Amino acid sequence: MKSIFNFFLIIGVLIGLNSCGPARFVEPLRKYQNAIALDVGGPVISVPDVATTPIPFSSITYGRGITNKLTIHGSWYTTAAIFGVAQIGAGATYGIWKSKRNKHGISTMLGFNTAIDVFENNFKFWPQLDAHYYFKYNHKQINQEDLLTSGRKVSNLLYFGVGTWYELDRTKAHGERQQTLVIPMLNFGHDLNWSRWTLKTELKLIAPFTSNENLVVDYFSLTGKNGATGVYLGLIRKF
Hints:
mainly beta, ten-stranded antiparallel beta barrel, 55% strand, Outer membrane phospholipase (ompla), Chain C
């Protein structure tokens, strides 16, 4: 029982440290198209006497295509709410380039995340800027040119990109000077698409150039003693 208590205590601490989710709508939605996304996952940590596991942060996101290039979206972090933190995120994804046959594309996302501790009235605001490259292919081995000209919207998608969160506070919780003002992230993901549903998987390298030693939790990182590795799983319904 003590180990389980420590596990949930660590989750509560982590919500205040970083609860970023996976990339949102790397390929913009079509004009007037809507989508609801459910995501779960987070940084992988080692919990003594429990396991090495991704923290099960969860969120619900709604997105709408304003044009074929512009999608706006908002997220509510449900796990944070359980621990008394009201956290929301919002942003706009814009498709800045597509190849002639729509196989390749580049998009950028400008947004923000906010968190309010309802017990202590602490408020945090993080601006966010992302950029992604994606490549579309057909999982069913149909010729890609035929797929893209037949009107079927079922091609799958691989993507990678760079994300950045910006820390606006110049001091930490105990009056210490804030050393890390920009938090970079590297994303590698895959969208498995059907006509209305998408299964999303993503691997994220969080703060890969910042030491993760002497922190309140023991992060697992593919980069060794720097940053953390996040693992995410999501399900999207388009309508």
